[in-house]
């Protein structure tokens, strides 16, 4: 799995063939942009603020990425590329459907733990009607494949063996899972504040994950 210090293929293409990209500089710009976009959203982030955080000039950012919008798209494309690890995994096929759903959710939580900025950027992008992503973007395509080729197969097996309700639907299931996962990373300060008002109540990320998994499995139906 790539790290923030790697130079993703999408970032390399941003150089547009003018010369070999400086991987360290590109990684610095991407890391800075993720933090700025996650904190301030697309509208609240400026090229100046990204450059200050990355310690580079505006000319260098424009050279590698073209514009703020292009840089935003590159980051979301990187998110799509990393999501492919879910699609390529065959571990779910050998597990009972309920166990496979649980692992799917654990893996999705782990992805956001590693890249918490992506949850914030996804929410911000939704507020912009996905103008920087578009229906034909790699992110939309990858998520469609994730639903159809991974979660869809799990749901089909669960319906067949009776461990899921007969009307269980991969699309609906995915967006419930996605909503539960992203809520923690986008709104955990509010969740923590409100949960602390109940005496003896302790809710952390691990408890949120466990509660989310339990909720989804209960909604899918009784274990066969």
Taking the sheet with the most strands, its summary is: none
- Overall CATH architecture of the largest domain: Orthogonal Bundle
By DSSP, the count of extended strands is 0
Q: Quote the CATH topology of the largest domain.
A: Tetracycline Repressor, domain 2
The CATH superfamily label of the largest domain reads: Tetracycline Repressor, domain 2
Roughly how much helix do the residues carry, as a percent range? over 70%
Average pLDDT level: 79
Q: Helix- and strand-based class?
A: mainly alpha
How many domain units? 2
Q: State the separation between the terminal residues, measured CA to CA.
A: 35 Å
Topology (SSEs and partners):
Blueprint: H1 9-13, H2 23-44, H3 47-54, H4 58-65, H5 68-88, H6 97-114, H7 116-127, H8 138-161, H9 170-195, H10 205-220
Helix pairs in contact: 2-3, 2-5, 2-7, 5-8, 6-7, 6-8, 6-9, 8-9, 9-10
């Amino acid at each position: 799995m790539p790290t923030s210090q790697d130079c993703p293929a999408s970032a390399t293409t941003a150089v547009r063939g003018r010369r070999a990209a400086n991987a360290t500089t590109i990684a610095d710009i991407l890391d800075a942009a993720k933090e700025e976009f996650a904190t301030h959203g697309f509208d609240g982030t400026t090229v100046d603020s990204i450059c200050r955080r990355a310690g580079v000039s505006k000319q260098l950012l424009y050279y590698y990425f073209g514009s703020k919008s292009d840089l935003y798209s590159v980051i979301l494309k990187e998110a799509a590329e990393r999501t492919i690890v879910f699609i390529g995994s065959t571990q779910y096929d050998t597990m009972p459907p309920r166990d496979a759903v649980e692992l799917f959710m654990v893996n999705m939580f782990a992805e956001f733990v590693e890249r918490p900025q992506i949850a914030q950027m996804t929410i911000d992008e939704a507020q912009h009607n996905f103008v920087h992503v578009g229906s034909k973007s790699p992110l939309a395509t990858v998520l469609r494949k994730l639903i159809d080729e991974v979660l869809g197969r799990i749901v089909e097996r669960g319906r067949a063996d009776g461990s899921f309700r007969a009307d269980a639907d991969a699309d609906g299931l995915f967006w419930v899972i996605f909503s539960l996962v992203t809520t923690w990373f986008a709104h955990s300060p509010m969740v923590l504040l409100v949960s602390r008002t109940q005496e003896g109540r302790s809710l952390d990320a691990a408890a949120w994950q466990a509660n989310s998994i339990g909720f989804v499995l209960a909604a899918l139906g009784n274990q066969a």
